[in-house]
Design brief:
Helix content is 51%, strand content 11%. It folds into two domains: 227 residues, P-loop containing nucleotide triphosphate hydrolases (Rossmann fold); 51 residues, Histone, subunit A (Orthogonal Bundle). It has a six-stranded parallel beta sheet, with helices on both faces. Strands 3-5 form a two-stranded parallel sheet. By secondary structure, it is an alpha/beta fold. About 3% of the residues have low confidence.
């Protein structure tokens, strides 16, 4: 077995990724290695919404250097393809400098973009996107979900009936002839990661994570997340930045919707994690000692041979 050179930590919102990443950094330094954290979060790339996205936690940590946090203006757009180029550059540069990348994220596609060579589907012609978005406004997301379910049931299974952007994208791919059923557990990935990778997924008991979500949102609101969102909107936040969970609800002063949306997103993250090939699941229920968890995570990187 090839010894891993990259650590990847995936987990849902509020599971405790930052705490574990810091502990992994301590364990690697204690072993004489030089870690650097690389965020694989679709929204933490943006400057101006750090409170909402939890990026401030990473920026305030002197203990472990973080990359790809607050690197784009909130007015810019970011795709998985663009992020892949940024992440590959950071990971390759870290390895070339003799450092150990610790890739940390809760956005499944962006984690995949960071670790693999994405097999990206073609963008839709503007007229196709415009037509489907008009259908969405006229018929509603539930109707488009039913349309997708009739055309490609396997694609509709993993999409919430009101997930507007993913519904439009799947229907685009269907009309382009690019929507194909998965071919096995590795279908979400290319054949292998770009570098030997230790992939760990973090989970918690459902009641614990729900309580942590509530505490996290309370802290965001107390820290001024609503004002931050209004300022970002006034500055011309891009369509991709506005997809940050809680952005639109806070613009509408709807904190309850923010909480509901976050809980639903966590369920999707956990579903996505179950599809990861080669992932080792680590249960943080009961708050085990982070340094003990980190020792288990980094052990394969330190093994002889």
């Amino acid at each position: 077995m090839v010894r891993p050179s990259v650590v990847a930590i995936f987990g849902p919102t509020a599971v405790g990724k930052t705490q574990i990443a810091l502990a992994v950094g301590r364990a690697l330094r204690a072993a004489g290695l030089d870690p650097v954290a690389i965020s694989a979060d679709a929204m933490q790339v943006y400057r101006g919404i750090e409170t909402l996205t939890g990026a401030r936690d990473a920026l305030d940590q002197d203990e472990l250097e973080h990359r790809l946090v607050s690197v784009l203006d909130v007015t810019e757009t970011c795709s998985a393809g663009r992020f892949a180029r940024l992440a590959h550059t950071e990971i390759d540069a870290a390895l070339a400098a003799g450092r150990t990348p610790v890739v940390v994220g809760g956005t499944g596609l962006y984690l995949r973009a960071a670790l693999t060579e994405l097999q990206l589907r073609p963008p839709a012609p503007p007229e196709l996107r415009a037509r489907l978005e008009a259908d969405l406004e006229r018929e509603g997301p539930e109707a488009l979900h039913a349309r997708l379910a009739a055309a490609a049931p396997w694609a509709a299974e993993g999409i919430a009936p009101r997930d507007r952007s993913r519904l439009v994208r799947k229907l685009e791919l269907h009309e382009l002839g690019e929507l194909r059923p998965p071919e096995g557990p590795n279908a979400l990935w290319t054949d292998e990661t770009r570098h030997p990778t230790r992939l760990v997924g973090l989970v918690r008991d459902r009641d614990e994570i729900r309580a942590r979500i509530e505490l996290r949102i309370d802290a965001m609101l107390a820290a001024g997340a609503a004002d931050e969102v209004r300022a970002a909107a006034a500055a011309g936040a891009s369509s991709t930045a506005r997809k940050a969970h809680g952005f639109e609800p806070l613009l509408d002063d709807d904190e309850d919707r923010m909480r509901r949306d976050t809980r639903r997103y966590v369920k999707r993250q956990l579903t996505w994690m179950r599809k990861l090939p080669g992932v080792e699941v680590v249960d943080l229920t009961g708050d085990p000692d982070p340094d003990a968890v980190a020792a288990r995570i980094v052990a394969p990187l330190l093994a002889e041979g």
